[in-house]
Design goal:
One of its GO terms (cellular component) is nucleus. InterPro entries: MAU2, TPR-like_helical_dom_sf. Its main location: nucleus. Belongs to the SCC4/mau-2 family. With about 180 residues, this protein is mainly α. It has seven helices and two strands, in the order H-H-H-H-H-H-H-E-E. It has a two-stranded antiparallel sheet with strand order 1-2. A hairpin with a 6-residue loop joins strand 1 (about 165-170) and strand 2.
Length: about 180
C-alpha cells in the first residue's frame, strides 16, 4: 500500500518544491516561503524521510522566527513534535512541546493586547464603515443591471444548462420569466 502512495507524494513534493522556488524568486514573500517549507517538511515526514524533514522544518522555524511569524512557528513546532515522537526522541519532544506552549501563550497575549488597543478598535470601526459603504454601492449597482445583458455565463462558454436553471428574477418588476437561449 505504501508503494501506491509514494509516487503521488513524491510528485506532490516536487510540485511543492517548484512552488517554493517560484514563490521565493518571483513573489519574494518570505512568510509564504516559511509556510511552503513547513508543508515540504510535513510531506517529507509522511514519506518517513526524517533526516530531510528535520532539516526542512528547522529552516522553516528559523525563517518564521526571523519574520516574527508566531502562528507559523507554532505550526512548525507541532510538526517537529510529531517528528520527535516518530524518532522516539523524548527529550527533544518534551522541550519542543514546552516551547510550542510558550509560543501559543505569547500569541494569545499578543492577540488580547491587540484587541484592547485603541488603534485596533479604530481600525475595526473604519473597516465597518467602509464595508457599509461598499454594500450600498453594490445594492445600487445590482439595481441598475439591465436585463438585456446576457448573463448566461455557462451557455456563453459552451456548458449546457437545463431550462429549470434558466429562470431569473426580474429585478425591476419582480416578475419571473424564462430566458431565451
Amino acid at each position: 500500500m505504501a508503494s501506491y502512495f509514494e509516487p503521488s507524494c513524491n510528485h506532490s513534493l516536487n510540485r511543492l518544491a517548484k512552488g517554493l522556488q517560484l514563490t521565493h524568486n518571483h513573489l519574494g514573500n518570505l512568510q509564504l516561503v516559511a509556510q511552503y517549507l513547513t508543508i515540504l517538511g510535513s510531506l517529507a515526514l509522511a514519506l518517513h524521510d526524517t533526516v530531510q524533514a528535520r532539516e526542512i522544518l528547522r529552516s522553516s522555524l528559523t525563517l518564521a522566527k526571523k519574520l516574527y511569524d508566531i502562528p507559523t512557528q507554532i505550526w512548525v513546532l507541532s510538526v517537529l513534535t510529531t517528528l520527535y515522537q516518530e524518532l522516539g526522541e523524548k527529550g527533544n519532544e518534551m522541550e519542543n512541546a514546552e516551547y510550542q506552549c510558550k509560543k501559543a501563550d505569547d500569541l494569545q497575549r499578543r492577540l488580547v493586547d491587540a484587541h484592547s488597543s485603541i488603534h485596533h478598535i479604530e481600525l475595526i470601526d473604519k473597516v465597518r464603515l467602509e464595508i457599509q459603504q461598499l454594500k450600498g454601492v453594490d445594492i445600487k449597482r445590482a439595481g441598475s443591471i439591465s436585463l438585456g445583458v446576457d448573463l448566461d455565463i455557462p451557455g456563453s462558454i459552451g456548458v449546457s444548462v437545463s431550462t429549470s436553471s434558466l429562470k431569473l428574477m426580474d429585478i425591476d418588476s419582480g416578475r419571473r420569466g424564462k430566458r431565451k437561449i
